[in-house]
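Box 3.1 — From sequence to structure: NAD(P)H:quinone oxidoreductase
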Amino acid sequence: MATNVLIAFYSRGGTIETLANAIAEGARAEGAEVRLRRARELVSAELMAKVPGWSENAARQNALYEAPAEADADWADAIVLGTPTRFGAVSSELKAYIDGLGGLWFQGKLNGKAGSVFASTSTNHGGNESTILSLYNPLAHLGLVIVPLGYADASLYKAGTPYGASAVVNGRDLLAPTEDDLAVARFQGCRVARIATALKPLRAVG
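Predicted structure (token representation):
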């Protein structure tokens, strides 16, 4: 039976979306079944209209990806969370999804599943590591086994962080994640899928 990997993310301009798809590619290379889910906006359409491209990108992505649901987390053997930095922390859109998992937490249904995180920012030293690490807290509370990357692959010596894949995209000279960024993301997908597969029999015996 295939290992199920949920990649739940929020992406406004497409950077996190691109990393999410690279992580999905890595997980699928390990034989995993993947669900990509995009968290929805919490702000008004009027506010979105003030930022060039926001409304259009949201509409495009929402047509491609369903919103994450509690059932997706229940289905998953691994949950990978992706978010842009918001003042050095998780976006409210993704946090709202995490906050909605209390029912599964109460039932203990997430215990022993693999959990991992990735992030992006638009400035150097803009909070990728602090954002990823801040999400380790809810992963621990939910009972997931946190899967960092360490330096277990050569790609980590060129990009990313030992905590999770990342990218810096400023929209000027840096328009999208680099190939080095994507290599780390693919490795993250592979690593998470492998560890989730190893954890499955342990979860079955409690």
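Summary of the box: The two ends are 19 Å apart (CA to CA).
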